[in-house]
Amino acid sequence: MSAIIYIYTHTHTHTSLNIFFSFFTCRVAIFTCECKKHVSASEALSSKYVSHKWIKKIENDRLLSAISIPGTHQSNRYLKTSKPMFQAWGLHNQLDAGVRFFDLHVSSDSIKYVKTGSVQESETLNYFLKTMWTFLVKQKKEILLLRVTPDEGAVAQVTKLLSRDNWPVWRDKVIPTLGQVRGKIVLIQSSTLELGLPVHITELNADMDTKETQMRENIKKASQKCEQEMMLTYTVANGESEPLKIAKTLNKQVDNYLLNLKGDKNRPHCVGIIAMDFPGPKVIQTIINFNGKLGEGTQIVGEFKFTDVEREVMFAQ
């Protein structure tokens, strides 16, 4: 549900409250806040949140590890038949929103479409590869990262499929520059698949009381190493039965932490890959913006810059 928030700031100082507000730049802003945009709870993606060419704006000689990348966890678990669901958006909307890292867990049935009723076509690895390739044909300067974790019985089939020459896939173990992999799918190694780039992974444990502290420590660790190695931070509900409920809290905490980190005088240059459940446009854009000003076509339409106090007003739930 949309909420209209009016923010008034001025320079008059007739009362102590006005004195407080005098520190702000004079402005009257009417901001339409779709207040749950730290999470994507709906299948739809508004056109004003499309951000499908942001990597294009980053220089070619930057190492892939040294940029900040929004990602999704269990990226193909978005159908209502998936229990539990980890995403609301299908792959097309994830791509259009600016997500560039995808995490797939596949069984032998989901490698190739099998009409058994238990596996849908849009959950298959083939579908994901074809959809990614189609996206890259249109957005030739973009880069997609893919981490596939096949079940034990599917390793050989997945390896064969991803080794085909007809896919624009980067399988090397050396971190490339952006210029080397534009228009390609870059494979990231998993526990059961060694094709692609090795990656350092941090995850949250099941203790809800410490998840925010863990998340901050993990992102900080990633920021210290991302210029030399691939870093992947999962900020997801490990061991939890309600991923959406957890994401509503965690995604907002990730967003707030990154905004504070970005404003620090000792801010890091990158935070690596951050993979989330149900990420919304707000947190995706915050991660993208960590790469600096990227120009037209990369930012949410109508984005305002607010002070910390105003931001607290906007996102108070």
TrEMBL record:
UniProt xrefs under InterPro entries: PI-PLC_domain (IPR051057), PLC-like_Pdiesterase_TIM-brl (IPR017946)
A single GO BP: lipid metabolic process
Domain of life: Eukaryota
Molecular functions (GO terms): phosphoric diester hydrolase activity
Gene3D superfamilies: Phosphatidylinositol (PI) phosphodiesterase (3.20.20.190)
Pfam family, one: PI-PLC_X
Entries under PANTHER family matching the protein: 1-PHOSPHATIDYLINOSITOL PHOSPHODIESTERASE-LIKE-RELATED (PTHR13593:SF147), PTHR13593
Record protein name field: Phosphatidylinositol-specific phospholipase C X domain-containing protein
Organism expressing this protein natively: Sinocyclocheilus anshuiensis
UniProt lineage: Eukaryota, Metazoa, Chordata, Craniata, Vertebrata
